[in-house]
Structures are given as structure tokens and as C-alpha cells.
Amino acid sequence: MNLRGIVAVSGRPGLFKLIGQNKVGYILESLDEQKLKVIANMTNTKLASLEDITVYGLEDEIKLVDIFTKITAKGTTPDLKADTTVLRTYFNEVAPNHDDEKVYASDMKKIIGWYNIIKDLPLFTEDTPDTPGTDAEVKLSEEKTAADKKQKTATGKASSAKASTKTSAPAKKASMTSKKGV
Fold it and tell me: Helix or strand or coil: residue 6?
């Protein structure tokens, strides 16, 4: 199953194929019948590659590819408008060790919906290539890694700024008390 280049876009329903990149953002093509081309702005749009998505598990995280494989083996999917208990029962069959508290019904619906979108596409039966992917896919992966590092660095700077504020506050307080005493 080749999910390389297939992304979910924050704020947009459905799935998209990553075609390329320009100065403004990523060029995407919807996987539905309309084949609508969209440019996703790099600064305010989040893309999640289906290849990298995992589901919370009790011991280890479960890859989306593995869930799709089990859904294919099962052959049928429940209606997306079905009751939550029906979805949960089905999901326990296709992802047996998922964490019931962290995986919500909306997540299950989204995964089943994604499966229904891509099950008839030719890439669904292809093997995943060992090559790193297109330039846009490699760039997306690099930017995600850089953003994660930047967030960790910003978190570290914020905690050190709080620490410096804490040390400077008592000094000011001490100088104020000495003025009152004089």
C-alpha cells in the first residue's frame, strides 16, 4: 500500500495528493471525482502525511497502513453515520490494541472515511517505494522536523525566561523594602 504523497489538510475535508511546491505553498490535488487543484499556504496550513499517521495503542502506536490492511482483509466498513458502539466494535476488530480513551469516535470515522476514499485508487495496491519521494514530499518532511525542533527550542527558551524572571523579582522586592526602612 503506497500512501506516500497522500495528505490530509487541516480545515479541509477529504484527502489530497501532493503534486509539487511553489513560492506560496504546496500544490495539492483532491482525490475525489472533482480533481480540484489547491495551493496550501505554508505559513498557516498544516499537512499530515497518511504515511506518518499513527493511532494511539495500549503498548505501541499502530500505523495507519496496518489498519488499512486489516480493513481490506475484513472487506467491509460500517456506515459513517452508524452508532458509536458499532464503530467502536468494528475498530476493535481492525485495530485490536488501540487505546479506547484516546481514540475518539470522530477519529474512527475519519480513518474509515479516508479508507473509503483511497480503496479504489491504483496507489492502494502499489508497494511503498524505497526512494525518499518527490522534492515536495522531502521538503514537507524536512519542514516538519525543523518545526518540531523549533517548538522544542522555543519551549526551552520560555522556561529559561521564566527562570530568569523568578530570580530578578526577589531582587527588586528586596530593594523596595530597604527604601521603606530608611
Answer: strand
Beta bridge partners of 6: 17
pTM, two decimal places: 0.65
C-alpha span between 19 and 45 (Å, rounded): 16
The residue extents of the domains of the chain are 6-128
In whole angstroms, how far apart are CA 57 and each of 36, 49, 98? 35, 19, 4
135-169 pLDDT, tens digit per residue, is 555 555 555 555 555 544 444 444 444 444 343 34
| 3-state SS assignment for residue 11 | coil
Three-class HEC string of 16-81: EEEEEECCCEEEEEECCCCCCEEEEECCCCCEEEHHHCEECECCCCEEHHHHHHHHHHHCCCCCCC
| CATH number 1.10.10.1650 given to 6-128 | yes
**Single-letter code of the amino acid located at 90:** Y
Phi first, then psi: what are they for 102, rounded to 5°? Answer: -95, -20
